[in-house]
Amino acid sequence: MYVQPGQRLFGLQSLATVWAILEFYPSNVQSLKVGQAVELHIESFAEPFRGKINYIEPLYGSGSKNLRVRVYLPNPGDMLKPGALLTATVQAGSRSALWIPATAAIDLGQSKIVFVKTADGFRSRKISTGRRSGNMLEVTAGLSPDDEIAENGQLLMDSESFVKAK
User: Fold this and answer.
1) CATH of 98-156 among 3.40.50.2300, 3.30.470.20, 3.10.20.600, 2.40.420.20
2) What pLDDT was estimated at residue 14?
3) Other C-beta atoms within 10 Å of 133: how many?
4) What is the dihedral sign for C-alpha 96, 102, 106, 112?
5) Quick one: 17-90 is in which CATH superfamily?
6) Residues 94-135: tens digit of each pLDDT
7) DSSP code, position 46
8) For residue 33, which phi and psi values (nearest 5 degrees)?
9) How does pLDDT run across 20-72, given as a tens digit for each residue?
């Protein structure tokens, strides 16, 4: 090939700062904020790298159900290379909440219920839920910490049951 005058042959980029692109499930998006601390683990390095969320993409990518977040990382000595795979832990903070086993809640489509222990047995009660973490479900309304519930609500129902939630 011949080189023409003004033709770009190659480009140089500094690796002094690199990006980490993280993807999050929609259920975790409400916990993310710009400026949150992130700890990144890369297989070939014993020590984790630390950074902060610099940018949260406003839209989900085409063909993806995950939201992307950008973290800028200082790269002394150019140790980090583009394309490396990593895992990340985001310090989302804490808040007090009431959590129940996910098996205790029965999804009725438009609402969710749990069975609360009463003097006469168990009664269904409508609840509002928030986040899910593993096999635990956050309850935002409908229960108090003093309520006793059935751990597996499906065991109290049969296929012919019709549930009336209060």
Assistant:
1) 2.40.420.20
2) 84
3) 11
4) positive
5) Efflux pump adaptor protein, beta barrel domain (2.40.30.170)
6) 667 899 999 999 888 888 999 999 998 888 899 998 878 778
7) S
8) -145, 150
9) 999 888 777 777 889 988 999 988 888 888 889 999 988 877 777 888 899 99
